[in-house]
Amino acid sequence: MVVSIGFEGSANKLGIGIIRDGIVLANPRRTFITPPGEGFKPVDTANHHQLNIVLLLKEALDEAKIDPQEIDVVCYTKGPGLGSPLVSVAVFARTVSQLWGKPIIGVNHCIGHIEMARLITGAQNPIVLYVSGGNTQIIAYSQKRYRIFGETVDIAVGNCLDRFARLLKLSNHPSPGHNIEQLAKNGKIYVPLPYVVKGMDMSFSGVLTYIEEFATTLQEYTVEDLCFSLQETVFAMLVETTERAMAHCGAQEVLICGGVGCNIRLQEMMSEMCKERGAKVFATDERFCIDNGAMIAHAGAEMFRVGVLTSWEDTFCTQRYRTDEVEVKWRNDI
Amino acid sequence: MDISSKDSLNCSPVSAELHIPFPSAHLATVAYNSLRVDKEPKRSTTTKVLSLEENILKASFTSGDTRQLRTAVNSFLDLLILVSKAIDEFTPPDFIIKECPLMI
């Protein structure tokens, strides 16, 4: 029976999660939200995490009703993500790991998303579409690695959505993507936007540039129309590349994870494609789609279970950390 | 006119030394271990060296640029304050730091 605690802060969400044997005991989160038109900068985000992490930990321990001595392993996000926020959380995790006398494990953020989504949905061997503000990857598990089949060649789809929201000065509360999704529901006109799929990969920066350059001509369309058109375009790109990966692997399951995975329209479009192929779509709700501590706790617990620990010198953080760099020793399937 | 020769704030190296006492050598060691892992950002000309003397954590900064030095010292102090908050709130009673098992 393993009790693990996970600390996540690679972007503007600070999350602490406590898990016992695959059951989430607590998973509180605080989001650093900037005014409309502004994105979150690393230093301000690091500041936010430093200011909130002590209270958040108390909240997590209270909610889980456990004493720190019951914890078996302290897990934190090693990367990828923003430098100073990652380090702020890592320094804190290193400190409590020493104070409580527990081993520490550095977890890959992307793998945290994948493993949590697998746990919650029960998907066996899906093609994973991992889509967030910082990452856009299509992943398939093979021989102890999460292999990246396809990915964005420039910005993440969530980054495209976030910056689009900034251009239109939409509110960032609770998240820019959420507000785009709500507005899109009332969109009536589809505006053709650049659709860029290159084999297994995708490009999203062209859509942004197009909207920036043609802002004046696009003024005849409502915000709702633009949100609707953007979603239909970028989500179709994601569905196309996911389908291509499924065809390559003969996969019958798709697992959507990452913050953009909360989007119901994306889930709908993916379901339509999967229905045509006789496949199933799995997705989690915003407790686990959006960055959270429990996903780090869970992935860390899996690593701990098979004896993968992190030496002290290796508890550094890294802004670039490829999903396929990690040996997935805890999975026994091929 | 050579701009750099008019910048009197750029006679390098500039340096700063911090001495931070803790209530015990155990707690100073906790802070030292937490803070010594991360390297300075790649683009910075600042180097940071941490050391321990009983219950005093020492941090030595050297930089080619005063403004970078300020940033490095400020970031370090922010993280140090974070460590001390964690120590204040989460140190178990009768805390003694475990030596080798953690530092594999």
From TrEMBL, chain A:
Positions with a binding annotation for substrate: 130-134, 162, 177, 181, 263
Molecular-function GO terms, alphabetical: metal ion binding; tRNA N(6)-L-threonylcarbamoyladenine synthase activity
CC cofactor note: Binds 1 divalent metal cation per subunit.
UniProt lineage: Eukaryota, Metazoa, Ecdysozoa, Arthropoda, Crustacea
Species the sequence originates in: Daphnia magna
CDD domains referenced in this protein's UniProt entry, alphabetically: ASKHA_NBD_OSGEP_like_euk (cd24132)
Listed cofactors: a divalent metal cation
Positions with a binding annotation for a divalent metal cation: 109, 113, 130, 291
Protein name as annotated: N(6)-L-threonylcarbamoyladenine synthase
Pfam families, alphabetized: TsaD
Organism superkingdom: Eukaryota
UniProtKB/TrEMBL annotation, chain B:
Keyword line: Cytoplasm, Nucleus, tRNA processing
GTP-binding is among the record's keywords: no
Gene3D superfamilies according to UniProt: Alpha-D-phosphohexomutase, C-terminal domain (3.30.310.50)
Keyword Protease (UniProt): no
One Gene Ontology biological process: tRNA threonylcarbamoyladenosine metabolic process
The organism's place on the tree of life at top rank: Eukaryota
Any one of the GO CC terms: nucleus
Subcellular location: Cytoplasm; Nucleus
Main location: cytoplasm
Signal peptide coordinates: none
General function of this protein: Component of the EKC/KEOPS complex that is required for the formation of a threonylcarbamoyl group on adenosine at position 37 (t(6)A37) in tRNAs that read codons beginning with adenine. The complex is probably involved in the transfer of the threonylcarbamoyl moiety of threonylcarbamoyl-AMP (TC-AMP) to the N6 group of A37. LAGE3 functions as a dimerization module for the complex.
PANTHER family (UniProt xref): EKC/KEOPS COMPLEX SUBUNIT PCC1 FAMILY MEMBER (PTHR31283), EKC_KEOPS COMPLEX SUBUNIT LAGE3 (PTHR31283:SF5)
Record-stated family: Belongs to the CTAG/PCC1 family.
NCBIfam families: PRK14887.1
The name this protein goes by in its record: L antigen family member 3
